[in-house]
Amino acid sequence: MKYLVLASLVLSLATSCGSKKENAKKNIADAPVSSYAESITVDELKEQLYYYASDEMEGRYTGEPGQKRAVEYLKSQYEKMGVSGGMTDGSYFQTIPESYFKRIENDSENVLAFIKGTEMPEEVLVLSAHLDHVGMEDGQVFNGADDDGSGTIALLEIAEAFKKAKDEGYGPKRSILFLHVTAEEIGLHGSRYYSENPVYPLENTIANLNIDMIGRIDPRLKDDPNYVYLIGSDMLSQDLHDMSEMAHKKYNSPLKLDYKYNGKEDPNRFYYRSDHYNFAKNDVPVIFYFNGTHEDYHRPSDTPDKIEYELYQDRIQLIFYTAWELANAEKRPALTVTD
């Protein structure tokens, strides 16, 4: 009997040691980052965007049935990939009461998904995109493939890439919130509601990378399409701008970082016109990724067949690389001191 007990003890110790070794945290510096970026594929982007910007979604107008279908779709995709809800109880919807809106007769929802950080979980990187569009008019559906189906699906694909890394032992050091906001088209209300009712304190939010229209080409750049506009990267934090530039070079992105609209004096006022602004006005450093407007902007003709999918893929991969560097950096980007 004593030999049997001794053998069991030895086996137990060996199993325990093996288990600890198996579950030991991997060095994030050894992560095959490019392979995670390559999981963002043209085929998956097409499949998801063609559905999200289909007539079935009825233009995703805030509070309407199409918008409700859109949020349920997003929830189902996060559930499928195993990414938890971002509310404190693990659910996905931050409900915004109809009383918060003007001229909207129903409640609406932000969709939140969350990957918890392994070393600094209290610090949160927010990636955002608006899930709504302008609805229908005279029986025509405004599909909103570029605006902002492109940003919405980008968040899903980036989340999937981070989840793949986490499953292989390379979870991000900081937490990442994937925030799909409602009611952007009627006044940035979804992001404003989140900024006034943050699930994670804004002082712990290290940056916001906001994605709104990244699937098309600005007509003025049709002969030089390998670009993405960046807005706001240096307005609150030189560190954020420098980290963005570093990620661009480190991972050999084929894109030109174009700062044409990066300024508070830009006559188009793009800095103030998407959801990053509700973070920026609360001193959260931001980058707004954008392809510029085009002839189908806010028209029924903004359809998924007009997306430049390979360019769209390159832009999402760049954002993923930038998010990777921010989530795993030694220090969060510091606010730039101004007079």
UniProtKB/TrEMBL annotation:
Pfam families listed in its UniProt record: Peptidase_M28 (PF04389)
GO molecular function annotation: metalloexopeptidase activity
Protein origin, superkingdom: Bacteria
A biological-process GO annotation: proteolysis
InterPro entries the record matches: EF_Hand_1_Ca_BS (IPR018247), M28_fam (IPR045175), Peptidase_M28 (IPR007484)
Domain Peptidase M28: 110-321
The protein's name in its UniProt record: Peptidase M28
The organism of origin for this protein: Nonlabens spongiae
